[in-house]
Specification:
The complex is a heterodimer of chains A (378) and B (305). With 378 residues, chain A is of the alpha+beta class. Chain A has helices at residues 43-51, 93-105, 115-119, 121-138, 153-165, 183-200, 211-217, 235-240, 245-250, 337-341; strands at 5-14, 17-27, 32-36, 58-63, 66-67, 78-81, 171-175, 203-208, 220-225, 228-233, 257-264, 268-271, 274-277, 284-291, 297-298, 304-313, 318-323, 331-335, 348-352, 359-361, 367-368. Chain A contains ten helices and 21 strands. In chain A, strand 11 and strand 12 form a beta hairpin. Chain B has helices at 5-31, 49-56, 58-91, 95-108, 111-121, 128-135, 145-152, 165-190, 194-203, 208-219, 221-236, 240-245, 259-269, 273-300. The chains are: A alpha+beta (378), B mainly alpha (305).
Chain lengths: 378, 305
């Protein structure tokens, strides 16, 4: 079954407020695509439109090449995992997982309590068998008779996944499914979801505001802001080669350092009083230079000076927050723990970076690229 | 050494509960075994005589008849209409507030005043109800035998005919009471998470009935148990309407002689404290049983979290 998903020119407003401004996105069969963006960027609305829970003002939703814009959610054969899991609290885990199949495969009469199972014993058995099979894969067989209220957050998460899996949908839609879990479990579930995706070979559309989830799990990620997709691409591509300053700032933790600089119009720029070669700057203009913390290196020969104002020790790395004259926000630098340990608050340090690691943006936030490396961007 | 502070915390509540609840119930229980009258210096112990009367005399048979008729008409209808109205209003936007107010008005209104209005409405000659019914005479409605009979002779004396009185009173009870249940159900409906409806929609619950069966009705379970219990207790307590319509004797041939009115008539009007106390104890027994059933249901079936 082909399960490509296509969104074409989707617009949506709530009253006067535009939420989506003509968003288009194509998702290949079996791909894990993440919609990532700050809250209020319209990513959840886009997912709900894809699911059919919300109607778009304009635009088209296609699944497997077929226009499904006017179809009911259940007819689209998608499954959704909700942030709050949305398990039916009065039904046991097994009944929760059987619900989509009961709704699809049984007639209203066969769904009647007591009478239904008597009249259609074979169907009920088949449905139970399918639910058991999925429970086996998710290792929740021992929970089948419990109510959702008796489960932990991680277990509920699994049951919600199970309910989505039983009917073998065309694509899985996930709306911030990990955000209600504690930090350790979230990291664990990230790996488990990736593993599940590899095993099911199904299309996953995953919405999150957590860029770490987007970077770790997805084949491709779409960064959304203000109702628009700003950039689509593989996670490492988006991380290393952002199109706009907003994308660069949103992806990466700690955030990228942005320093004001002046482009000279002769293929160079002046950053904090230091002149650097910068082929991308062909016009005289103020620019912003983005530098990832891991690209800054400490060293006595460094061309830039700063004062340590704060140390963040994460064990494997130490992040130093440096006060640098000429920069409004502190510059964050990643140091090896050995190098960081000897430094105290208030110490003066020198640092430097490779000019190739600079990401230069113009005043409007658009990336300025090396003339030779301009590529077609998806 | 263990501190005695806890006694000071629960003390005031315990004291008040004893003084205004437990002791009066004990006194009523004691009085129900005597022939005490207010003003008498003493009273004779009469054993179970009062209770024997309650369960053998026709007056009290009528009392139970009237009470149960009222309760078993009013409870299902107020619960059903309350749920229906709540579902309809919940699906509306702004206008919903208007309907909410309209349906809740009878709950807030003083029932004595409302009873006078209904008395006029049901008046056999000048009442608006029979006047309206007479308009229908000569139309297709006459094919209904009951209606034809009404046109031929006269429409019922709703409040003073012993075949109709209790049902008319029950009708007013429904009119007065369902707004309260509606408000309780509305509160229950707002507490149902929206994502459950989204999940139901994704799972294929496409019709409104499917969504009601899968999400709304089960999640209203705790509300329903509470609403049914409170409706039962409120229906058992009906008094002011009966007192307003039939200050003497509890309606045509005692057909509206409900329990609360009986307690009032025996204990206060006729100063037969013993028998009044005995009816009160029976009444408390009913309420107690209902409350126990509610507790079991709440703990067993609707305890989700």
């Amino acid at each position: 079954m082909m399960s490509t998903v296509g969104l074409h020119g989707i617009t949506k407003s709530f009253g006067e407020t535009p939420v989506l401004k003509g968003v288009s996105l194509d998702i290949a069969d079996g791909e894990f695509v993440t919609l990532v963006g700050p809250s209020g960027c319209g990513k959840s609305t886009l997912l709900r439109i894809l699911a059919g829970l919300e109607a778009a003002d304009a635009g088209q939703v296609r699944i497997g090449g077929q226009d499904v814009t006017a179809m009911r959610p259940a007819e689209r054969n998608l499954a959704m995992v909700f942030q709050s899991y949305a398990l039916y609290p009065h039904l046991s885990v097994a009944e929760n997982m059987m619900t989509p199949l009961r709704m699809r495969d049984l007639s209203p009469v066969q769904r009647l309590p007591i009478l239904g199972p008597l009249a259609a014993r074979a169907q009920h058995k088949a449905i139970r068998a399918q639910a058991d099979e999925v429970a086996e894969t998710l290792k929740i067989t021992q929970l089948m008779d419990r109510k959702p209220g008796q489960l932990s957050g991680g277990q509920r998460q699994r049951v919600a996944l199970g309910r989505a899996m039983v009917r073998k949908p065309v694509a899985f839609l996930m709306d911030e499914p990990l955000s209600n879990l504690d930090a350790a479990l979230r990291v664990h579930m990230r790996a488990e979801l990736s593993e599940l995706h590899r095993r099911l070979k199904a299309t996953f559309v995953y919405v999150t505001h957590d860029q770490a989830e987007a970077l770790t799990m997805s084949d491709r990620m779409a960064v959304m802001m203000h109702g628009d997709i700003l950039q689509v691409g593989a996670p490492d591509r988006i991380y290393t080669d952002p199109d706009t300053l907003e994308v660069a700032r949103f992806i990466g933790s700690p955030t990228i350092n942005v320093l004001p600089a002046d482009a000279g119009g002769d293929g160079s720029l002046t950053l904090l009083g230091v002149r650097l070669p910068a082929e991308m700057c062909q016009n005289r203009q103020p620019v912003a230079v983005g530098l990832r913390p891991e690209h800054l290196t400490l060293g006595d020969a460094g061309r830039f000076a700063g004062t340590v104002r704060h140390r963040e020790n994460l064990g494997a790395d130490v992040y130093l927050h440096l006060e640098v004259s000429g920069a409004e926000a502190p510059v964050v630098l990643r140091a090896a723990p050995g190098a960081g340990a000897s430094l105290g608050l208030g110490d003066a340090v020198r640092f430097d970076f490779e000019p190739g690691d600079m990401r230069v943006f113009d005043a409007s936030g658009t990336r300025l690229r090396q003339p030779s490396t301009i590529r077609e961007v998806a | 050494m263990q501190s005695r502070a806890h006694l000071w915390f629960i003390g005031p509540a315990l004291f008040l509960m004893a003084v205004i609840l437990l002791i009066p119930i004990l006194i009523a229980g004691t009085l129900s075994f005597t022939d005490y009258s207010l003003g008498n210096s003493g009273a004779e112990f009469v054993g179970f005589e009062n209770y024997e009367r309650i369960f053998t005399r026709t007056t009290y048979e009528k009392m139970f008849g009237a009470t149960f008729r009222y309760v078993f008409v009013v409870v299902p209808l107020t619960v059903g209409l309350g749920l229906g109205a709540a579902l309809l209003i919940h699906s509306l936007g702004r206008i919903g507030d208007l309907y909410k107010t309209i349906y809740f008005l009878p709950v807030m209104a003083a029932l004595i005043a409302m009873a006078i209005v209904w008395e006029f409405a049901f008046h056999p000659t000048i009442g608006v109800i029979n006047a309206t019914l007479e308009r229908g005479c000569g139309t297709f409605l006459e094919s209904w035998a009951w209606y034809a009979k009404g046109c031929e002779r006269t429409f019922p004396l709703w409040l003073t005919d012993r075949d109709y009185a209790i049902w008319t009173v029950s009708f007013i009870g429904v009119w007065q009471g369902f707004g309260f249940n509606m408000v309780l159900y509305l509160a229950g409906l707002t507490s149902i998470p929206r994502q459950l409806y989204d999940a139901a929609e994704m799972d294929g619950a496409t019709s409104g009935w499917d969504r009601f069966r899968l999400v709304t009705w089960p999640l209203l379970g705790p509300t329903t148990v509470f609403v049914v219990t409170i409706s039962f207790i409120r229906s058992f307590q009906v008094f002011d309407m009966v007192e307003a319509f039939y200050p003497q004797g509890g309606g045509p041939s005692k057909s509206v002689y409900v329990m609360m009115f009986a307690i009032y008539e025996k204990g206060i009007q006729q100063n037969l404290m013993g028998i009044g106390a005995a009816i009160t104890v029976v009444f408390l027994g009913f309420v107690m049983v209902l409350t126990l059933i509610q507790r079991r249901l709440v703990e067993r079936r609707t305890h989700y979290v």
